[in-house]
Amino acid sequence: MTDETLDKGGAPRQQTTDRNRTMTTAQGGPIADDQNSLTAGPRGPVLLEDHVMREKIFHFDHERIPERVVHARGYGVHGHFELTEAIPELSCADIFQRVGEKTPTFTRFSTVAGNKGSADLARDVRGFATKFYTREGNWDLVGNNIPVFFIQDAIKFPDLIHSVKEAPDRGFPQAQSAHDNFWDFISLSPEAIHMTLWQMSDRTIPRSLRFMEGFGVHTFRLVNAEGKSHYVKFHWKPKQGLQSVVWNEALKINGADPDFHRRDMWDAIDAGDFPQWDLGIQVFDDAFADAFEFDILDATKLIPEEQVPVRIIGTLTLDANVENFFAETEQVAFCTQNIVRGIDHTNDPLLQGRNFSYLDTQLKRLGGPNFTHIPVNAPKCPVHNFQQDGHMAMRNPKGRANYEPNSWGEDGGPRENPELGFQSYPEQVDGIKQRTRSETFADHYSQARQFWISQTEIEQDHIIAGYTFELSKCEHEKIRLRMLSHLRNVHKDLAKGVADGLGVTELPEAATPARAPITDLPPSDALSILKNGPKSFAGRKLGLFISDGADADLVSALEKAFEAEGAMVAIVAPRIGGATLSDGSVKAADEKIDGGPSVLFDAVALVFSQEGGEALSANKPAMDFVSDAYAHAKVIGWTDAAQPLMKAVGASPDAGMAKLSEEGAGDFVTLCRKLRHWERTLG
Ligand code: HDD
Question: What is the CATH number of the domain that holds 499?
């Protein structure tokens, strides 16, 4: 078969929508009329024998499959992983052996709580799941953009998710955690406090899926050819740097473009601006694990990079959008149990429960055990076994033998291979069967405090605002107070800041910790977003707001300067047809001002003619454009003619604003690299 007749997964493309082909039924029969049902006479009843109409509607009726019970809203992208440092001494996984070798991948980003149709900028953890189609089978690294988790044991997962999703009686609120049920559960589950610090930080409102980190969260094992094991934690570090939006911006983006993140990813890849992440590993041994202050099997704890540095071993490049959202993004089935020789699980009770849940959920979602036959899930290496039949089986073992061992000679089929096959690490396990939580999991506040003291002042303000907003949406005071009793154990400034925001004058008693927290953990710069921002404006977007009569040379100079920076420019104008510039040329607009608010851009420029500027100074969407950009601490480029509009919204020039001139476009770009002029918000 030629490439054209195969899809990305290598399966035959059975369906085409080419214009020059005759339309057929699913059975392949040519269709003569797709406009009218078969009736008895022009005004008579529709006949039951109309197989064309019935088949079409039957199929339509069954288009939906159950959405994922969590991470329902997601966006998938193809790519590849390139190994930059081989680690045979640590792992015999085939993917880690040969520098420069590329392994195809599929990555799906997601929010957790919202339904499939919810908005992209909900305050939520982001899923970051990657399927590596290695030569020795599929390896799924199913992580998040936060290195720790809410709970320690998988048995609590249904409770956590029930509490955050819509209340069962009223069916709302959805795609948010700002409600009683969530904070009720959290405040009764101290193990979750550390994760809520991350959740209330701007990590949960990323500017782009391209600008966030990823983490495998659990401690896994790497096992080498001699069977020697090391512990490992996986990290994804975006080459694009970290960047988030501010909360007020997130609320407005959800209104202006609920698909903001997926559109951003699609556009970047479509434009050839392929996002990249380095794969990092934190490797440590039993001696470190025994000496570490916390239990390495506890998923509510991280290992600071200062204690175990992150070693970069490869790069993930996302370079192709899906051809069909349903076939690929919806049907992709990640399973934490999908590991390959050279990588192994640990006894983390969260991970062990996940290993059951993912396989189980795919059966429900995809309807049968043969979901590995779907191209996006199919390994790209040969598959040999005696599994057969089941719903939608696309392939079955050939020949007479469908069991093993058999004595049908050379054609008897595949056999096991102890050398090449997966071997579980032979860890000694011994113990009394019991339901208990290890004492070593009991410190719930120390790393929360470490996270807090690692943030910049602006980030701390945002965390306080995050808790304050969320708890203000709780109708029950006892829940707000219970949360404050935990925050007191994290840091007094945090508790005080949130209490002030909520109008609580007397702080409740601090919650009694299960174990005395360690109070002297040092700050870790890796935990801050602002300390890990980008060095350039590349991959970011300028909103260039123009009016009729705007200086054509300046518009062109700005476009050139930002293009040279690797950034995108979107033209915003009073009319979508564009604006007639000073030289008489017409510049088409990407957005009409009403539909292109400044929240969609990383920086804005206001290039008006005198007349255009005056007309816009009383235009409400234009006023919101500037007022929001100013309030969100964005870098603003302005021309004299924009002054009436700026004055109208109280945006007076400051160090985060650059006066534009054709020659000065470069200075404006330099200023934009800062991304935000935070000083403006510090009052
Ligand atoms: Fe999960 C989906 C990440 C704990 C049960 N999870 C899912 C996805 C991601 C994560 C990224 C979306 C995959 C995709 O794009 O298709 N989950 C995590 C992380 C966790 C975690 C990082 C903690 C470290 N999850 C977790 C637990 C359980 C589950 C403890 C169950 C006991 N997760 C599921 C699931 C989902 C899922 C129900 C829903 C859809 C799916 O699996 O395929 O099985």
Answer: 1.20.1370.20
